[in-house]
Amino acid sequence: MAKFRRRTCIILSLIILFIFSLMMGLKMLRPNKANSGDPFGLELLPELHQQTHLRKSFDSQNNDKVNSETNIKNLKSVEITMKPSKTSEPYLEELPPLNYYLHAFYYSWYGNPQFDGKYIHWNHPILKHWDPRITKNYPQGKHSPPDDIGSSFYPELGIYSSRDPSVIESHMKQMYSASIGVLALSWYPPGTNDENGENTDDLVPTILDKAHKYNLKVTFHIEPYSNRDDQNMYKNVKYIIDKYGNHPAFYRYNTRTGNALPMFYIYDSYITKPEKWANLLTPTGSQSIRNSPYDGLFIALLVESKHRYDILEGGFDGIYTYFATNGFTYGSSYENWARLRFFCDQFNLLFIPSVGPGYIDTSIRPWNAQNTRNRINGKYYETALDAALHAHPSIISITSFNEWHEGTQIEKAIPKRTSNTVYLDYRPHKPSLYLELTRKWSEKYSKERAGYTVDQKLPLS
Length: 461
Description:
The chain is an alpha/beta fold. It has 13 helices and 12 strands. Strand 10, helix 12 and strand 11 (396-398) form a beta-alpha-beta unit.
């Protein structure tokens, strides 16, 4: 009996020793600092570790994701620029489809010494008030990049050039991540430009190519170039369609009648008299573009209520409101959008309200503080988007992707402080806050639009 007990004890001891050795061996294989629940050894690759948690966050659509992002809140040095981790980007394959009824105004007028030999637009002059008595109370001159720029925010990409292919690529990727389907490119005809920039028509092929890579489309936002009238507008529309119309990224809108037509936003259209526009945009006009290979959808800027009837007389196909300042104009006031939509329905016009994340242009118009609209950590933007959706629009336009001078950009911005300036930023949220909000509302708009297009006979695609 004693011999049996000894043998049993020895066997049990050997089994215990084997199990203990096996457990120690497994423990040696697992890194000491691994957390339970993490993939095995994941913390050895910090970026992959962060991306995994971000993927879970995006998949669950948890709104707490922006609050849990930690940004440094105290800038202690005299001059500091903080750049976020690349892991703040969602995976492209995880994103919802692009919404081709969501357009963003895009500006390609920025330049820096590396690509352009000088700064362009970042050194924007401080504009004078029309009353000299007010002007004398404010600074004069130009901004002096790279630390002093004509913006109240500072871009994550730095003081970039719109000619830098990597910048264009990044912009397309950001718009893709926001489910924006169409960029409305600010455009001046060859040989012309805005008073603070240079002509950028030669950039259009690159912008089209980069947009196509991400399945984005490009439409044209025609600026008020010098002496714009019906005759040179015909030539310029013909130029755009002849030169760029066959590119796969060139945007066309499918109308109720089944036609796929180019779209042109006409900024400050009210400057030109309605009868001039009628020459171009009505079938009987002397310069009529209608029912020709260069026909399209021409969208007028509505600022004042009275412009509605000028737009009708001029033969336009729709209206947009552009300004991201609620209450600044009749057109930009959310309370008027239902009436404007009703007007457009009466006369078979497209209604395209413009929404924006906020507005601040005091870096270039220091006397215009009364028109500043605080972003309120994204609430201003979401209020605008909600108001636009309630109006059941044909399209929603975003002012803007990157108009930095007026502080309407949804492009990524970062904290920066210099000895003279503390730039605004998106904290406590991350630099991609407004892209994420755009993506959220783009998906919501896409679903809601599919519901009301049948009743209103709008095109589904």
